[in-house]
Design a protein that fits this description.
InterPro entries: Metallo-depent_PP-like. This is Calcineurin-like phosphoesterase domain-containing protein. The chain has 577 residues and is α+β, with helices and mostly antiparallel strands. It folds into 3 domains: 22-147, Sandwich (Immunoglobulin-like); 151-479, GpdQ, catalytic alpha/beta sandwich domain (Purple Acid Phosphatase, chain A, domain 2), CATH 3.60.21; 483-574, Immunoglobulin-like (Sandwich), CATH 2.60.40. The chain is 15% helix and 34% strand. The chain is built from 6 helices and 31 strands. The strands form 7 sheets. Strands 3, 4, 6, 7, 9, 10, 11, 12 and 22 form a 9-stranded mixed β-sheet that branches. β18 (397-402), α6 (418-429) and β19 (436-440) form a beta-alpha-beta unit. α2 (202-218) runs parallel beside α3 and α5 packs parallel to α6. The longest helix is centred in the N-terminal third of the chain and has 19 residues, at 2-20. The radius of gyration is 29 Å and the shape is globular. The N and C termini lie far apart (106 Å).
Amino acid sequence: MIKENLLKYFLILFGFLALSMGVAETWSLKVIVKRPYLSEHYDSLGNLVIDSLVRNRKIAVVIYKSGMLDSLSSESATNDSGFVIFDFTQWHDGSAVDSTNIAKIDILFPTTYEGIKVGENITFRKLRYQSVSFKGRQFEEITIILPLLSVNLNEYTIGAGNWGFDFVVLTDLHINELGNHDYDFGSEGYDDYDDNPYETGVPISNLWSAVLFINEQLLPAYPIKFIVLLGDISSSSERSEYQRVKTLLSNLTLYSPIYPYDRIFYIPVMGNHDAWPYTYNGSGGIEMPSSEVTIGIYFHDAFINQYDSLKYFFPLANWEETELLRTPTDITGEDWPSYYFNFAFDYHQYHFICTDFNSRHHAGWGYHGTPPDPDVYSEQPWGHTWQWLHQQISSQKMVIFDHHPYCPYFPPGSNFTKGEIHEIAQAGLLNNKPPARAIGGHKHSEETHWVLWDEDTICYAYFVDALKEGELYLFHIRDSVSFIITQPEGNPILPVTVYFQTSYSYQGSYNAPAWGIPYWDFGDGTQGWSLAPTHIYRLFTTLDTCFKVTVSMEKQDGRYLLRQNAKSNCLAFQSSY
């Protein structure tokens, strides 16, 4: 009783002091954000949660003073409970913000885009709610339900140069997952076909939104070279699920008619849901028997032609793949054979490594398919992926794609253990220079990135969130252009023949696209487009002449090739006079 009275006394005293000192009362706005459907999500402690709350979503709030004489704004992101609280104290003139002098509230989502149907077409705009209704309370609470047709664009930049290229990452499509997975997509069974184009669900809707958004918003504005499908493309590896994915992705186009292809290329990476075919029916579900299964069989059948397109038609230099991408092996540590989808390629100055650490075990415990956690097996004969990674690591700039993010045991029981991270580090990543970038999905949680550490730097690791929940990722690679000059030694007499060559990775690839040619200004009044030009500097009347040479990658025929540019070198020659 005495403690309660003392507490009341101090609260009254604090209120009196606050008023006497002119401390303004805070007006607060709590914004709760929800999806129009339930989804599985791992919270920051690794607990599986099924709800509609939207976490780590950027929000901006603008409040307007009565008479529209003033406005205040603030930006933040929803927390692990799907809400954010904005506090406002004073207007710019020093008067207090309170429920009686707020005329209007606008809520904006800086990274969220809403699809708007206009006739037969869909266009996208940033999501914004104007003049949101409120109740005039000192602590206001507003709930926002996101539109079904929407995407959230997340962006990362790798490097700090003035030119580059971009790629998109879509992970955990889960076509077509409904509720508790109790669903059979397409015709009956897993060895089926997509027999009903009107059969749909949230994952299909979100993939279609992503395709439309990429076509309308991203391809015209960014130099996007490819799209990575980072695993769990299907929900249960039914043939029909892959068929629907390929049908939707076939609508990816490039806005420029001069591009030599009529579509942008996507790169499939296998996830744990893509490994062992199964489906559900009214009696609880069926899966391919262990006596018949080959891990990755339907994934292989769906995408082997896509790998051929990447290898032979898309301008990727130094394409490499393991023979197990095309031919399954019995050396798996299990009683059934398996494909292993490990491959690599070069683009510009980067080496991209795609790894398949998915488990080949059966899930057990009454579950179908394979378990969610990966396996490394660095010291076993079936450690095919670890061996592949070990062979691919070099001193090049590297980006690694794997369905499972490179992090220790998060969420519990569904990712690498600390010991397995140590094995991955020992494949050659530990203290490698420059550190690799490893991008993974799988955990259906808000994106984040950090330095992965095991007594020293292993890599820079990135989590990306699920497309089935509307998340899309745009990565910007930014680097510096350089070029090589070959000229006679010393200070030669004009005329002089000089050889130039740019240094970016698909140099030497017979598939190098025509629009990848740099633009040269040779400093003597002549310019031109060329991959490796030869230029003759001729007579000048001055005793010593310095030519400032510039190479850049700029707009050509309306397409933005590489960001503005360039490097300059000064060539000093003697006149023949």
